[in-house]
Structures are given as C-alpha cells and as structure tokens.
Design goal:
The chain is mainly alpha-helical and about 130 residues long. The protein folds into two domains: about 35 residues; about 55 residues, no CATH class.
Length: about 130
C-alpha cells in the first residue's frame, strides 16, 4: 500500500516556485497562461457567431453542426465538462423538437415560456 505523501513546507514550496520561475526564464517551461475571462469570451463568441449567422445563415448552421461533431461523437472514451455542455445542447435540441411535435399534435402553434422551461429546459439543465 502506498504511503501518504507529506505536505510540503513553506520553504519547499518557495524553492519549487523559484525553480519553476527559473525554468520559465530559461525557456524550458512555457510561461503561465492568463486566466480566461469567461464572460468576455462568451460575449465575443456569441457576437461573432451572430454576425456570421446574419451574413451566411446556411453556412453558419452547417459550420455549427460540424463544430459539434468536432467536440463530441458516439465513441467518446472520457467525457470532459465542456463535452457535457455540448451534449446537453444536443439533448435540448432533441427535446425542443419533441415539444414542438407535441404542440402540433394538440393543434397549437403558440406556447408560454413557462411551458418551454418546465418541459424542455429544466429537465436537461438540472442533469
């Protein structure tokens, strides 16, 4: 049975940080990446896709389908949190279609946001 490793002392942590800094300065290790500003990234990505969709809607839809295929597929060995998000998007599309077909069978063309949220969105986003 493997032994539990001891926690590093403050001195050991400082030594490791200094070594890492030196290796980065020498070019052996890459520099630290800046943290991603998620809100800014989301806004920019959405605006870029919206502009693309406005100018070339069919090509944008085909590109979106292809991009989803780049991220997920039937033979995934491990599933990352990002891939779970893409898979939830696919599930939302399927459930939204089921919801629209149900409305058609009832002879309705309109629905409330509450119906949509309760029947389509919440069951999938709460997985």
């Amino acid at each position: 049975m493997a032994k539990k490793q001891k926690r590093l002392t403050q001195r050991e942590k400082a030594e490791r940080a200094a070594i890492k800094k030196q290796l980065q300065a020498d070019g052996v290790l890459p520099p630290n990446k800046p943290r991603l500003n998620r809100k800014k990234f989301a806004r920019e990505a959405f605006e870029a896709f919206e502009a693309f969709y406005t100018s070339e809607p069919i090509r944008a839809e085909l590109s979106l389908i292809k991009a989803i295929g780049f991220m997920v597929g039937p033979d995934m060995k491990e599933v990352s949190p990002e891939e779970v998000g893409v898979l939830k998007l696919l599930k939302l599309a399927v459930e939204y279609n089921v919801f629209l077909r149900k409305l058609e069978s009832e002879g309705r063309t309109k629905y409330t946001y509450g119906e949509l949220i309760d029947e389509v969105i919440l069951p999938i986003t709460n997985l």
